[in-house]
Structure formats: structure tokens, C-alpha cells
Amino acid sequence: MTFIHDLPAYAGLNTALCKDLPYNEDIQNDLEGEKETIPDLSSRDSAPSENPTVFLWRKTISGASKGVSEKTDSEYQRLVNQCVNFLIGNSLIQKREDFVCPSPSEDVPFFITAWIMNQCDEINLDGSLKPQNQIRDSYVHGQKMRASMTYLFGHILGLGSRPWQKSEVTGRMTGNPSISEQVSSYMMSLRTRKVHSSETPTSAHAVTSETLKKLYDENNKPEKSKIKEYEPSSRSQAQDINDWGGDFRKTHRDGGKSFCSIFVHLTFNS
Question: What are the start and end residues of every segment in region (Disordered) (predicted)?
Fold first, then answer.
């Protein structure tokens, strides 16, 4: 087995994973966010099987319930092929099946981060800096690359949303390698470098519990709690920039609150 983090050619990746790592809470938030993109499977559903018929059934069922549009599926498949070509081209694997398989090797999280780093980072895999005029993909594209891996191992290969971890029974790695601390740590590290280089990444995972609490407090101020009659207004009317949420307005016959308030209320009371 090739351990990518032991190779001098990947010293840059090793450095990116080992320094300036975020707090564990940030990594856990990222892992939880990535898990939510894949439906949960039972331990029996995701257990490895040597029976080719069982594997084919799982693959067929996963494809029928993939939960993404055909366009997104095609884009993910394109990215998977791109990743495989990168790994073969860099002699990290010999054939597609060495990577795209239901029993991923221990190095797969490093393969994923190496691929993303090569495309998106300002640092080369060997640790040297890329020329400033070299085109690099955005952090958002890096998220899409990771999403394609989560989709590949979670949906297509049937490994679900269980985080990547070593089994105490068998000593083998189990779960989805894209939902691993290594990949999450790298993505947080990449995001920091992108911000420092004046790129402003956007991410659904960036909505933290602290942000949700602020939204909840804002939408539950006493002056906002009284439901008022709906009053249409023109966009041309001057608006107070601090009144971004508005008051609660009665809608149709049933009355109602702002979507934001309802969403945050459910989040904190579920």
C-alpha cells in the first residue's frame, strides 16, 4: 500500500493537513454538514460484501435513489473520472478499480485532498508555491469536487454517511472516506488560504450554531413578536438597512411568521 503522506512529492499536502488546523468543533461541523448530503444506512446496508450480486443490487438501488438531478449526476461522474485520471497519471493507483471500489484503501482521503489541492490550492503538492498567473479553481469548485467524492462513495458505492474511521473489531477502515477528518481539515485549511488571498468562499457549512442563535434572537425580539396585517410596499421605497428581517405579517387566513424565524425555531427546539 502506498502511503501518500510519506512521499516527498506530497510534502505540501502533508503540511497543509498538519498546520493551522481549525478547532475540532469546526471540523465536526464540517463533517456533520457533509453527512447530511447522504442518507443514513444501517450497519448491515453498508457492510462490505464479497457477493457480487449483493454489490450489484446495492449499486442499482443507490442509483435509483441518488437524490440529485441528472445534470448534477453527470457533473459528479465527470469529476470522478477526472479524479481517477489524476491518480493514475500520478502513479498513485494503477487502475480505476483501485480507487472506485466498495472497500477503499486507507489512503483514499489523502488521494481526495491531493486531487483538490492540485486543482484549487496556491500550494503545489510538493510544498512549492504556484505562479501567481497560474489559474486555480475556486473554493466553491473545491467543494463540488469533494461533493462528487461523497456522492461516489456514499451513493454509488453504498457506503452511506458514516464517517471514515477504523473498526475496533477488524482494524480496517470503514465508512465514507470523503467524510473524514483529513478531508474536512484540508477543506477548512483551503478556505482560510482562499480568504487570505481575497477570495470570498460561500458555503452552506459555514452557517454555525452561533449564527443560528443570532438569527433566532433577532427574530424573537419583543417588537417583532406581534403579528401585523400584511401591507404591500414598493421596492422603490426607502428602507432601513437594519430592518432586514421585517415584522411578522399575517399571510392568507392562517397567519404566519417569517421563514427564517420558523427555521431557526425548529433548529433550536428539535
Answer: 220-246
